[in-house]
Write the structure tokens for this entry.
Amino acid sequence: MIDVTLESVSKRFARGGDTAAVDDVDFTIAAGEFFTLLGPSGCGKTTTLRMVAGFYFPTSGRIRFGEEDVTRRPPNKRDTGMVFQNYALFPHMSVAQNVAYGLKIRKVGRADAKRRVEEALGQVHLAGYGDRRIDELSGGQQQRVALARALVIRPKTLLLDEPLSNLDAKLREETRTEIRRIQKEAGTTGIYVTHDQAEAMAMSDRIAVMQSGRVQQIGAPQDIYHRPATSFVARFIGRSNVLSLPVLAATEAGVTVGLPGGGEIAAPAPAGHGLRQGETALVSVRPEHIGLTTTTDPGALPGRIAEVEFTGMATNLVVDTAGEQVQVAAVDVPAGLAVGDQVGLRLNRERMWVVRP
């Protein structure tokens, strides 16, 4: 395993003119870490991964593996294993031949290659599948063959580009656990690309959230979920209400904001937030951190129910309150609650967080 560092890395394609596909990205991935690049389509996450792999060279900036500068090093000299979105398996080869392909290119001896292929297939729970044809396998099994092919060369860095996107929901959940287990057992640094927030949260040691070629926030899943840096991160990671509220008072630790209906509440904020009395704060609060109460409850946010959706584990509500539509995920809902009913919303101040625009 090895750490991976990107220093002020940017990528511009000729067809894109002055628009950067990746714009001034900086981060270091620790050796053995499972690090995820997360964001919507077109945000630059796959381009970033391909620069780490060597398929693209940066327009500017530097990429290091440990202390080695690999910015202009070709892919076959980087000691990385890659798992592609479409698996890129050879249909005319057996499972074992597919897995052994990288060893053949590296001129590994036949006996050693056979042993390493069997070992890799065992890692992905496909022992005994070596003689099978690729078209005899399920989608999940093909994905594991692609993973075995990347692991068999014993890479210091394992790169995965949306490898679960072709699987059904249940199989995705099962396979993401397997990928995480295999990466840790193999002792390799993992860099994973996905647009699926739940996938990233479940698998990652840390996540880099990207938008329009730039990194919006890097952190552990819990930090990104509970303390999003920007309104984009708050809305993209799960569901969140981002409320525009007037600042009544401000300290280094947070701000006191006014609520529609006349109440007020103190909301925690990151150090250096820079907000002052009279300005407007953007405050993120998750639907599950809002409780239902009566309209007469002091400090509650009064509103009228616009939507009700029962999901089994919770009841999702949309509540109109002074021009804001607030999402609520309530576990304990009074019987008979319906569209048009008036309710009070109690915000959990400890779970609120001030974000940047």
